[in-house]
Amino acid sequence: MKLNVAIAQMDVVFGDPDANFSKLEDFVKQAAEQSADIVIFPEMWNTGYDLTHLTTIADEAGQQTKSRLAELAKQYQLTIHGGSVATNRAGKFYNTTYVFGPSGQLLADYDKVHLFGLMNEDAYLTPGDHGDQFEVAGVQAASVICYDVRFPEWLRTLSLHDSRLLIVPSEWPTPRLTQWHRLLAARAIENQSFVVGVNRVGTDPDNAFGGQSVVYNPFGDELIRLDDQEQLATVVIDIAETTAARGFMPVFSDRRPDLYE
Ligand SMILES: NC(=O)CCC(=O)C(=O)O
Fold first, then answer.
1. Active site includes 60?
2. Which domains does the chain have, with CATH numbers?
3. 171-220 per-position pLDDT tens digit
4. Burial 62-97 (b: 16+ CB within 10 A, else e)
5. Strand ranges (E), 114-164
6. 119 CB near ligand 1 (under 6 Å)
7. Is 168's C-beta closer than 6 angstroms to any atom of ligand 1?
8. Distance CA 5, CA 2 (A)
9. Which residue range or ranges hold the CN hydrolase domain (predicted)?
10. Can you tell me the distance from the alpha carbon of 210 to that of 212, in angstroms, rounded to the nearest whole number?
C-alpha cells in the first residue's frame, strides 16, 4: 500500500484567519494537482500564536474550519489533515486538529494534550483529554501536535492501535530544529512507523520558524526534508516498510508492559 503525502509548509499570517484560509485553499488545489492522497498543514495555521486576541479570532466551535475543510476534501477528493487551528468552544480555547476524508467526512478531532509553556499556551489554552486515530486510504494513522512529540509514552499509546503513520503538525522555532529532527526520527524508529513533521515557515512577533518539514521512514531514514521556504512538496511512502520493520524486529510483541508504570 503506497500513499502520496503532500506537505503544505505554510507561512502563517499572524492573527488573520481569512488570509490563511485563502492560502490553505491554494495549497489544497496544488496537492490535488499532484495527485496527493493526503495533504497536511502546520500547527495553528489560522491565527498563529496570536493568543491575546483569541476571543475575536479563534474559530467558534471550529465551524469555519470544519465546513471549509469538508467542502475542499470533497471537491478535490483527498484527505485533508488540517494541521491545527485555534478554536473557541464554550468559552475555552483549544489547539485543535481536524481531519477530513474525501467524502467530506470528519475522520479525527484532537486537542493538543501537552501545552507548551515556552509559547504561553498554558496561560490561554485548555489541554485535550483524548487521542484520535483515523484511516487514510486504508492506512491507520494517528496525529499529535508539536510539543506532544516530546512525550514518547503518548505516541506509543496511540501506536498500540496499529498506527503506521504518525503526523506531527508544528510551529517549531528555528533554534531547536536539531531537536525536532532527532525527536521525530526517534518516534519513527521506536514505533516502527512513518513520521511526517509539518512545520511552518516565517516569523511572528516572538519567534522565527525555519520549516524543515520532514518525513522519516520506520527505520529513521529521512525521505524528504524541506528548506525554510513556503512550499508544497509530495513524497510517496510505502506502508509495507512498517510491516518489514515490525517483522524484522518485533518491538511491539517484545514489550514488557508488566514492568512499566
Ligand atoms: N508549538 C510548540 O509546541 C513548540 C514546541 C517546541 O518548540 C519544542 O521545543 O518542543
1. no
2. 2-251 (3.60.110.10)
3. 999 999 999 999 999 999 999 999 999 999 999 999 999 999 999 999 99
4. bebbbebbbebbbebebbbbbbbbbbbeeeebbbbb
5. 133-136, 139-143
6. yes
7. no
8. 9
9. 3-239
10. 6
